[in-house]
From TrEMBL:
GO terms for cellular component: cytoplasm. Residues 1-105 form the N-acetyltransferase domain. The gene is rimI. GO terms for molecular function: protein-N-terminal-alanine acetyltransferase activity. Acetylates the N-terminal alanine of ribosomal protein bS18. Keywords: Cytoplasm, Transferase. It comes from Streptococcus constellatus subsp. pharyngis SK1060 = CCUG 46377. This is [Ribosomal protein bS18]-alanine N-acetyltransferase. Coiled coil: none annotated.
Length: 105
């Protein structure tokens, strides 16, 4: 799974924001959860979050470029726990993410 997640990140970003080691460490973290978007056996997107008693912190959401604009990120986001506060951070320079999150809040 580590390699498949890394390949999605490489497709989305010029340089993956997470290394293979970081992905592996996160996958093994007891609070980490991953929601996957698949087309057949092909991983086309994912949402990584950590869940505590009171909140779910979104760590990363990525959808391969060829599948962007098809509401896949929205579908991933809709699978977050509904009984928790959603927490996330995004850079001011990441305009597409800011627009996406503002629609979801």
């Amino acid at each position: 799974m580590t390699e498949r997640i890394y390949q999605v990140l490489k497709d989305v970003y010029a340089v993956s924001p997470w290394s293979m080691e970081q992905i592996e460490k996160d996958l093994q973290h007891p609070l980490s959860n991953y929601i996957l978007a698949l087309e057949g056996q092909n991983l086309i997107g994912f949402l990584a979050f950590q869940e505590s008693d009171f909140e779910a912190e979104v760590l990363q959401i990525a959808v391969k470029k060829a599948y962007q604009g098809k509401k896949i990120a929205t579908a991933l986001f809709e699978h977050l726990p509904i009984n928790k506060e959603i927490f996330l951070e995004v850079r001011d320079s990441n305009k597409p993410a800011l627009l996406f999150y503002k629609k979801k809040i």
